[in-house]
Design brief:
The chain is built from 17 helices and 11 strands. The protein is of the alpha/beta class.
Length: 378
């Protein structure tokens, strides 16, 4: 039975991962979260890890006081989360939101931990560094995003270099078929009303703008060693075909299932085995029809901007990711309109001081400058 480390344990993916751990009896050796210490304390008391870490230092002090009747060690800051990623355990599930997940991923790889990766920004910003480090350490990067898990599952048993095209599906989000004029004054509440998936606020807004799909294109480039031109995005409203591949002989293989993140989480944790337990089973008779359409990249510009960023390479993906994270915060706070997210992402891409050769310090510097640019633009 594998021993787990779960980073981002209080978020949507983290809580579902703990649901899988609870059901299957996995031992959880470390937990980490941002600042939700109420839920983190409940998780710590149930799973009894040796260590918990909190990004927010004030919240960490409060949690340490709350847990003083236990033997659980409480750490804080990025350093504390990185230490949590390196404690005894077989696999680190990284569900931290945003670029904050990059350093803990690299720390886990350095400690020779396999990674169940739900933090796409790790590969968007540091994909070259992460994949190189994983290769050197012989570490597996197991995708947890439903789309990348579907691709990963679809290529099991396929000969090396047999992928001709990746078919990356998108739900289309809450604003499917909307025009730019119709999107001009949409509200935060409308943007958070996803038709198929229950996710955190940031990723739900990214789904509404198709930024999430753009980030997934970048992630797929690094995970599967392909070019952006070899990835075709299809709008698939039913969210039943989670993604697939076209192989060199023309065969198309895809993974289908209900829109439930517990399946890709479970597969990453049990790989290469499959659990005997299924969540909600797929009934194709109930589904009836599956449809596929091309995305509207003129209206939903973030997708095209991400593709342009990965084609430029270097620090360009970091710039668009950082600008988007900051712009989404501003939108959620009611300080900018929905369509301004793409405008700000484009501005950061065009003003990025790109480097083809870069260090982790360069990544965080590019991220910081993109965020500052966004804040100064409003």
């Amino acid at each position: 039975m594998k021993e787990l480390i779960i980073l981002g344990s209080t978020g949507s993916i983290g809580t579902q991962a703990l649901e899988v751990a609870r059901r299957d009896g996995y031992k959880v050796n470390a937990l980490a979260a941002g600042s939700n210490i109420k839920l983190l304390e409940e998780q710590a008391r149930e799973f009894k890890p040796s260590l918990v870490a909190v990004f927010d230092e004030n919240a960490a002090r409060e949690l340490a006081n709350n847990l003083k009747d236990t033997d659980i060690k409480v750490l804080s800051g990025v350093e504390g989360v990185c230490e949590a990623a390196t404690v005894k355990g077989d696999i680190v599930l990284n569900a931290i939101v945003g670029i904050a997940g990059l350093k803990p991923t690299l720390a886990a790889i350095e400690a020779s931990k396999d990674i169940a990766l739900a933090n796409k920004e790790t590969l968007v910003t540091g994909g070259e560094l992460v994949m190189k480090a994983a290769s050197q350490k012989g570490v597996k990067i197991l995708p947890v995003d439903s789309e990348h898990s579907a691709i990963f599952q679809s290529i099991q048993g396929a000969p090396e270099n047999s992928i001709k095209k990746i078919l990356l599906t998108a739900s289309g989000g809450p604003f499917y078929k909307k025009t730019r004029e119709e999107l001009e004054n949409v509200t935060v509440k409308e943007a958070l009303n996803h038709p198929n998936w229950s996710m955190g606020a940031k990723i739900t807004i990214d789904s509404a703008s198709l930024m999430n799909k753009g980030l997934e294109v970048i992630e797929a480039v690094h995970l599967f060693g392909v070019k952006a031109k070899d990835i075709e995005v299809l709008v698939h409203r039913q969210s039943i075909v989670h993604s697939g591949v076209e192989l060199s002989d023309g065969a198309v293989i895809a993974q289908l299932g209900t829109p439930d993140m517990r399946l890709p989480i479970q597969y990453a944790l049990t790989y290469p085995e499959r659990s005997n337990y299924a969540f909600e089973k797929l009934n194709l008779f109930d589904i009836g029809t599956l449809t596929f359409e091309k995305p509207d990249i003129k209206t939903f510009r973030c997708l095209a901007l991400c593709i342009e960023a990965i084609n430029r390479g270097g620090l360009a993906p970091t710039a668009v990711n950082g600008a988007n994270e900051e712009a989404v915060k501003l939108f959620l706070d009611g300080k900018i309109k929905f369509l301004q997210i793409a405008d700000l992402v484009e501005k950061a891409l065009e003003e990025c001081n790109n480097k083809k050769e870069f260090t982790i310090d360069d990544i965080f510097d590019a991220d910081k400058k993109a965020r500052e640019l966004v804040r100064s633009a409003i």
